[in-house]
């Protein structure tokens, strides 16, 4: 490790200890030695002993920077895994990170616009409306039409911090892979690479603008999800200008109830929106923490989601979608044999895996879970148990599915937060069954024919020509193959003849060696001469 990496690692440990995060280590005889080592190696005391543990965790993650804040945002959605005093504090990381100076934000905006802000906008507010790990938001009014807009501005000097942490994560992933062979199954380097791509993509606000436009188009006319309009004429790589929206933050349960929102329908819509994005569009919002999700004040009986911050999106190819849908349906139907076979067929576990043993291991883990009512089952817990089981069968982490797994946990966490009785399984199963019937049933065949029909119609007039060319090329190819075969046979005959001459020559040489001891010197000389003659004939035959 380089000096800068060691220095950063020490800083991370220092911050964690300064905020007393070692209090998270449970009191147990097995943890006594690590605690003693910690005190002997790091003489750093907890500077905030009177601050609640959840708040200390939030402050530490906030001080460590965007990579760690993102981690805290993800944890904040899993209220089924963390107690309220932890989850409530982590939720503040979603949009209440310490803002940077508004004057600096204005200067950055003007540099991006190429002129004074007042030339295009009125009523700029230097006080940030919201501040997150990578960017912060300011409000203004667009002069040309009087519409309220927001500026999203990238934090200054944020990229070097992210790159330093990612570099350290790479180094740690490589060390873990070398020291712990079992960790290779988790493919830590590939996972860090995927995380790096995700974070660096967030630094390019033109990419976010394109993602927002795509997601808005995908749900055009759909009353379940609204994506604000983006003003691309004013946007750039470090500035995004978009429509200002008014809504209730999804984490504000009391506000949603006061507005009369149908929380059951809202949570079910979240599941349907997610699966629609994944399976219909192959393009899903992958950063659905509560800071990015609002609910419209209008039509609370049929609530509409509002999605912000499309910097992180995920995609799946056709094969991954098919295997994922079949896996989920097999789980819903408790068909563990199918789950095991799909894992082998997709290459997620080695092809020589014993399917019977794998099926039995999955059944052993999942059956006790499914004994509970489905509305009480956490899909996150099922996934974790499945991965722990699959580890025994050398299952590798699929980097292309990491974002999807994380987003699915977000969706479940949000849904259960809104409506604790949410039955994610019952909500998702009809959608997946309908999607699969469209993919492999008669409707799927008709849809495939429809999509290919224009291409076939375009190529149909060329079909006779293509057929003639194929036949002619086949004839020429057969002639070439015949010629190559004749050449091969001729070379084979030549080499056989040459080997025959070399063999006779070698025989005469052996005879010369045997006759060398005789009194008559003529016989060995003649044998050598004849042998040499046959070797020359063999060499000449090879040269042909």
Automatic annotation (TrEMBL):
> Which keywords does this Swiss-Prot/TrEMBL entry list?
ATP-binding, Cell inner membrane, Cell membrane, Kinase, Membrane, Nucleotide-binding, Transferase, Transmembrane, Transmembrane helix, Ubiquinone, Ubiquinone biosynthesis
Protein localization: Cell membrane
Family (UniProt): Belongs to the protein kinase superfamily. ADCK protein kinase family. Belongs to the ABC1 family. UbiB subfamily.
Where along this sequence does the record place binding of ATP?
129-137, 152
Question: Residues in domain ABC1 atypical kinase-like?
Answer: 93-343
* Function, in words: Is probably a protein kinase regulator of UbiI activity which is involved in aerobic coenzyme Q (ubiquinone) biosynthesis.
Q: In which pathway does it act?
A: Cofactor biosynthesis; ubiquinone biosynthesis [regulation]
Note the topology in the membrane: Multi-pass membrane protein
Q: Report the transmembrane regions from the record.
A: 498-516, 522-539
Q: Where is the active site?
A: 287 (proton acceptor)
What PANTHER family has UniProt attached to this entry? CHAPERONE-ACTIVITY OF BC1 COMPLEX CABC1 -RELATED, PROTEIN ACTIVITY OF BC1 COMPLEX KINASE 7, CHLOROPLASTIC
What lineage does the source organism belong to? Bacteria, Pseudomonadati, Pseudomonadota, Gammaproteobacteria, Vibrionales
* The keyword Transferase appears for this protein: yes
What is the name of the protein in this document?
Probable protein kinase UbiB
Q: What class of enzyme is it?
A: transferase
């Amino acid at each position: 490790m380089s000096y800068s990496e060691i220095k950063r690692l020490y800083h991370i440990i220092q911050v964690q200890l300064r905020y007393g995060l070692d209090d998270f280590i449970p009191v147990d005889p097995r943890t006594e030695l690590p605690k003693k080592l910690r005190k002997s190696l790091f003489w750093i005391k907890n500077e905030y002993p009177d601050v609640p543990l959840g708040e200390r965790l939030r402050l530490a993650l906030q001080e460590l920077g965007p990579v760690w804040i993102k981690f805290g945002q993800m944890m904040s959605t899993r209220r089924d895994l963390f107690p309220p005093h932890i989850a409530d504090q982590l939720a503040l990381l979603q949009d209440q990170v310490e803002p940077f100076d508004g004057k600096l934000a204005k200067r950055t905006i003007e540099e991006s616009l190429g002129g004074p802000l007042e030339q295009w906008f009125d009523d700029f507010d230097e006080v940030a409306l919201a501040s997150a790990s990578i960017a912060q938001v300011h409000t203004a009014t667009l002069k040309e039409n009087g519409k309220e807009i927001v500026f999203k501005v990238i934090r200054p000097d944020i990229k070097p911090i992210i790159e330093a942490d990612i570099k350290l994560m790479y180094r740690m992933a490589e060390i873990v892979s070398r020291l712990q062979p079992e960790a290779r199954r988790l493919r830590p380097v590939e996972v860090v690479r995927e995380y790096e791509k995700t974070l660096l993509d967030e630094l390019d606000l033109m990419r976010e603008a394109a993602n927002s436009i795509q997601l808005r188009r995908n749900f055009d006319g759909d009353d379940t999800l609204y994506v604000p309009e983006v003003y691309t004429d004013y946007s750039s790589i470090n500035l995004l200008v978009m429509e200002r929206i008014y809504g209730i933050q999804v984490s504000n349960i009391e506000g949603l109830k006061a507005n009369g929102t149908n929380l059951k329908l809202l949570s079910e819509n979240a599941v349907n929106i997610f699966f629609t994005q994944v399976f219909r569009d192959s393009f899903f919002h992958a950063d659905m923490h509560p800071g990015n999700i609002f609910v419209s004040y209008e039509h609370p009986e049929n609530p509409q989601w509002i999605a912000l911050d499309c910097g992180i999106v995920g995609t799946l190819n056709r094969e991954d979608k098919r295997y994922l849908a079949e896996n989920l349906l097999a789980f819903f139907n408790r068909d563990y044999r199918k789950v095991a076979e799909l894992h082998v067929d997709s290459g997620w576990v080695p092809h020589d895996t014993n399917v019977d043993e794998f099926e039995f291991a999955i059944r052993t883990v999942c059956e006790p879970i499914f004994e509970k009512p489905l509305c009480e089952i956490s899909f996150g817990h099922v996934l974790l148990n499945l991965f722990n089981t699959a580890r025994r069968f050398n299952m590798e982490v699929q980097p292309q599915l990491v974002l999807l797994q994380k987003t699915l946990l977000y969706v479940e966490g949000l849904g259960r937060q809104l409506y604790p009785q949410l039955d994610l399984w019952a909500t998702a199963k009809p959608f997946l069954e309908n999607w699969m019937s469209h993919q492999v049933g008669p409707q799927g065949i008709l849809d495939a024919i429809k999509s290919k029909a224009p291409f076939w119609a375009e190529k149909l007039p060329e079909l006779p020509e293509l057929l003639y060319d194929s036949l002619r090329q086949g004839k020429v190819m057969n002639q070439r193959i015949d010629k190559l075969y004749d050449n091969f046979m001729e070379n084979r005959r030549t080499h056989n003849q040459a080997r025959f001459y070399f063999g006779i020559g070698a025989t005469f040489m052996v005879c010369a060696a045997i006759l060398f001891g005789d009194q008559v010197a003529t016989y060995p000389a003649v044998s050598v001469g004849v042998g040499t003659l046959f070797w020359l004939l063999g060499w000449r035959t090879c040269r042909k």
